[in-house]
Amino acid sequence: MNITHLNLDTLYKNPAFSQAAVIDGPAKMIYVGGQNGVRMDGTMAGEDLGAQSEQALKNVLEVLKAAGATQENTVKLGIYVVQGHDMRPAFAAAQAIWGMHPTTITVLMVAGLANPQALVEIEAVAAVEA
Description:
single chain, alpha+beta, CATH 3.30.1330.40, 4-stranded mixed beta sheet, two-stranded antiparallel ribbon, 6 strands, 35% strand, globular
């Protein structure tokens, strides 16, 4: 199995994300449900978007690890942010926790999340050798 990240010359290029990811060969697909900034003890990691994004990404990584995957295997991130928040702290958290693994990404601004304290929710799709 091989994951190829596409960044077309005909589109804007950003080192933080890819335009597409192509999976060749047999793969086991991993779908990580939405993770927000909740610590293991059930408390929210903080009241700001940066702290919650950091914890949410750590939670995604923990689930990926349990499934036998890492950021390198991740082909898509879906990030839902409660509207009205500056995204810069979330991007800083992503660089610190996720690193420079340019996956495909969609960021959506939403009115709210299931947990009223949550400011961000992150889901992921990964592929590993079958």
